[in-house]
Amino acid sequence: MQGTKAAIKETGREMPHILVVDDEKSICELLEITFRKEGHRVEVVHSVDAAKRKLESQIFDIIISDIRMPGAGGMELLKFAKEIAPGSFFLLMTGVPALETAIAAINSGADRYVIKGDALVDQLRRTVREVTESLKWKNEAGYLRRELRRLTGLDNIIGQSPKMRSIFDLIQTVAPQSSRVLITGESGTGKELVARAIHENSQRAQAPFITINCGAFPETLLESELFGYMKGAFTGANENRQGLFQAAHGGTLFMDEIGNMSLTMQVKLYRVLQEGKVRPVGSTDESDVDVRIIAATNKEFEKEIAEGRFREDLFYRLSVIPIHVPPLRERREDIPLLARHFLERFRRTMEKSLEGVSPEAMTRLESYDWPGNVRELENTMERAVALETGREISPRVLPDRVLGYPEGSGTGGPGGQFSEFPPEGIDFEKEIAAAERRYLQAALERAGGVRTRASELLRISYRSFRHYAKKHSL
């Protein structure tokens, strides 16, 4: 068993939580002593009603129940457990073996059926070990999938600029620690990749890495996602559900767009970070969690705090180690490396025999400011690979917004000059309208969708911005 316990510890997962239900106190005491010695958390009750109350307030990995007890029996508890905690392994035991009872138990959803007797403890210990191994390998499989993604390069951070090299050094330094990290940077810069790199280079690498976009959930739903809930906690809560904090126990929870979290949720998160305990919605019981928090945002926290939208105490809890990921326009020397990386990826998946990016196309790529950062470059290269029919990526398959930049300018405007005036002439009104739209889109992307900020970047009034946005259906 020591080997199993060590393996579970390596993957960062706690030993399974066990509930024992039997009206015979001597059996309960024996099983409690047996499984506690092997490192399990064990709780004991002597009736089905008491067991139901436990299941309504806590989450158990394994339930061991006698079939025959005064009042309600194990079959009724089995039915209740399958409704409220379908993920639990349910084991029924009986001192009066009967084929009909065994068949009924299995048909009702019991995972195992054992006979009480001299070999009871050995049978239960063997079964619990099997369940523990199953949980371990399930966790290990998740780690292997993450490792495969990392080895294929899909989760690698690409860069050779001084700013990126300093980030690589910082990742190597902070990864072995358990300190919380706050990653800042514009949308599309690769903040999640930095978080994954920290996790994969830490002692928690074989434990779960779980992500949540805090801006994608309303307040009430975010609370149940993070902390879990018990059956009946709210309309639609038909079973107990584990929260992401519990699911990430021993590993890392990456909380993206943390700046979009409501003030009420900020208070609840602060309490979890301070006490290391979570309470599922609808429960009165708390459970300890060992989770490393890595948060990310594209907002300026100083401004958010000053305007009362983010708690200063929570900010300091989250930003023990701050990491800023620079936008792509501030590390242009990484653009060729990234472009070739994406070219190789999409060339393989689309089974195309492209040899590279032409010098003219690469110049255009390096001159563009990439308001959408690495994500925009990735999408641009996917489009280029799909459209290109020659041996290398040419300027003709690049989007207009990229071609609209004068070569070597790097000024960031999506308009620019023509490399040559078409012999057949142009539709002047259409070209002006297209340029207006490109400027509006670029300003909105740079401003993170905030229209007042976008109007400031364009040096026009907010009223004028609204007029143009309506004109171009933005």
Fold topology:
Layout: H1 2-10, E1 17-21, H2 25-37, E2 41-45, H3 48-57, E3 62-66, H4 74-84, E4 89-94, H5 99-107, E5 112-115, H6 120-151, H7 162-174, E6 181-184, H8 191-200, E7 209-213, H9 219-227, E8 228-229, E9 241-242, H10 244-247, E10 252-256, H11 263-275, E11 277-278, E12 287-288, E13 292-297, H12 301-306, H13 312-318, E14 321-324, H14 335-349, E15 356-357, H15 359-367, H16 373-387, E16 392-393, H17 400-403, H18 428-446, H19 451-458, H20 462-471
Parallel strand pairs: 1-2, 1-3, 3-4, 4-5, 6-13, 6-14, 7-10, 10-13, 15-16
Antiparallel strand pairs: 8-9, 11-12
Helix pairs in contact: 3-4, 14-16, 18-19, 19-20
List keywords for this structure.
Helicase, Ruva Protein, domain 3, 48% helix, elongated, 474 residues, 4 domains, disordered N terminus
What does this structure look like?
This protein is of the alpha/beta class and 474 residues long. It has 4 domains: 2-140, Response regulator (Rossmann fold); 155-326, P-loop containing nucleotide triphosphate hydrolases (Rossmann fold, 3-Layer(aba) Sandwich); 329-419, Helicase, Ruva Protein, domain 3 (Orthogonal Bundle), CATH 1.10.8.60; 425-474, Homeodomain-like (Arc Repressor Mutant, subunit A). The protein is 48% helix and 13% strand. It has helices spanning 2-10, 25-37, 48-57, 74-84, 99-107, 120-151, 162-174, 191-200, 219-227, 244-247, 263-275, 301-306, 312-318, 335-349, 359-367, 373-387, 400-403, 428-446, 451-458, 462-471; strands at residues 17-21, 41-45, 62-66, 89-94, 112-115, 181-184, 209-213, 228-229, 241-242, 252-256, 277-278, 287-288, 292-297, 321-324, 356-357, 392-393. It has a 5-stranded parallel beta sheet, sandwiched between helices. Strands 7-10-13-6-14 form a 5-stranded parallel beta sheet. Strands 8-9 form a two-stranded antiparallel sheet. Helix 5 links the parallel strand 4 and strand 5. Helix 14 (335-349) packs across helix 16, helix 18 packs across helix 19 (451-458) and helix 19 (451-458) crosses helix 20 (462-471).
